[in-house]
Amino acid sequence: DLKVVCKGSSEALLDRISGFAEPFCMVGVLGPPKSGKSTLLRALAGRLSRYASLEGEILVNGRRQQLTYGTSAFLTAKDMFMETLTVRENMYFSALLKLPTIMPMKRKMDLVDQIIFDMGLRHCASTRVGNGCQKGINKGERRRLSLAMELLMRPRLLYLDDSTDGLSSSASLLFLTKLKLLAQEGRTVVACICEPSSDVFHLFDYLLVLGNGRTMYFGEARFVSEHFTRSGFRSPPQQNPVNYLLHASSAEYKEIKTCLQSLQDVEKVDEIGGEITADTVDDLAATYQSSDICSKMSAKIKEISSKKGAVLVNLGRHAGTTMQIAVLTYRSFLYLIRNICHCWLHLIFSVVLMILVGTIFFKLDHSINAIQERASCIFLSLEILLFLAIGGMPFYCKYLQIFVREMLNPHYRVFTFVIANSISSLPVLFLIALLSACIIYFLVGFHPGFSHFIYFFLNFYASLVVMESLMMIISVISRNSYVGMAIGSGIQILFMLVAGYFRLPIDIPNPIWTYPMSYISFHRYAIWGLYQNEFLGMKFGHLSDQITGEHVIYSVYKMTHPGKWENLLLLLLWALSYRIIFYIFLRLWEQILDLYSTYTNKDETSKM
Hints:
The structure is a single chain. By secondary structure, the chain is an alpha/beta fold. The protein has 24 helices and eleven strands. The strands form three sheets. The chain has a six-stranded mixed sheet with strand order 5-6-7-3-8-9, sandwiched between helices. Helix 14 packs parallel to helix 18 (426-444) and helix 19 (450-478) packs parallel to helix 24 (564-606).
């Protein structure tokens, strides 16, 4: 008698659900939209939101136990992969993350090849998964790859939520046939499925049909149509009662009937039948409770529950932390450099724009007017680089979606992910900063001297690292690339306004704009450091009327403290601070999403 209720509400998402799932069998969970299918699966898998309370017992081999690492796998309809990697590379990196370090590499590769073969993916093993910029494997192959990556741990329990959503009928049939083969190997498979075809329907051994969080049927799949017919549930001729129940309970069904009536197609209206109401669902649930099938299933549930089987354990364990960081770093680096829409466009635009800016400010002299021109060129080139980083928001959001998907069956810690993510992008940012600095520095003719150029480059590099860290935080908050880019642009404009270019630092109004805005703007430290690096030690104007760089920095721009190296250190501290905040947000994000999804489900259920 499983019952799930949102905390703070008396309305049940699931109401007295009972059933069982055995090895060598595949159980299908069917029902109209918002009937409680996903909630049931999450409850069985131990992934129910902390904002939902669960009543009743969930037994594994007749025992109450928490599923240990590798004993179960939970899959959703959202297939998230490193799309610039091939099928085999995704499998290979997944094996390195999930399987223990002491396991021989050859054995890991043999296991990867065997699962690829079992899932029917050998023909596309060397094909990249694909994305909007590159064609790849189809939806059915993506879904089987998602399953294959979880089979590396050889789980005994498989939970699949909306497993055939978005697939064609042939792709759905192939996917569920693969699941049936896995069940026949001794696994227990529980799958939620929407509107199954007749071919798919007969693959299940048992069916659980839900409606409004209640059981309308649980028993052998071959008897479900007969049961609904005996219950007085009349479906249109030549329609399966279960399929008719699922169709007629959908939100679009009433609109379909209205359209057909407008077309005056009376015969077709009669063929599709009437709309299923909440009263019909309640009647079917009540009829099932008094049926012989319900009595038979209840007796079998008691029999199975009374038998104490072995404790379900998996002796496997994670790869070591060092191995996980190395694998995640290399995988992220490959994913990044193969992403043409993010990595290479960012590099190309940076180079092109630096050439344009450099030619506008080509070979500046040492006149008095050149002071403002040099300051403008430094400010413009830095801001261009930072604004280009905002364009990577779709990449960051996609990267986080992959992280969330992998955390459904956690095989590494958040800390490991943050470290690997921080390291993997450093080479690309290094290349962008180096090329940009080389182009703009020598075209314009900034302060001569190798040490000054090195500082100019390091300042660009540190600023890009800070900017990327900030955008990662925004991607966690926004959850949407367009919203993230809007937020990122707004923050950049605010930081730019108080950086000390448009108004002198001492002229920025108090209290908000100076304290705290100008001090939390990392643009301030980048600009100050670049100005100090450029002007200190230089002289401008004619011999009779010269202005020193010290006078420009200390008297004109009023940039006294901190010094240029202290500003660079502060940039690095901001990068570290943003990464720590990113880590904290990721730890809190799962709880926030739990709260959001739980109360969204509650609201949607109340509308049924």
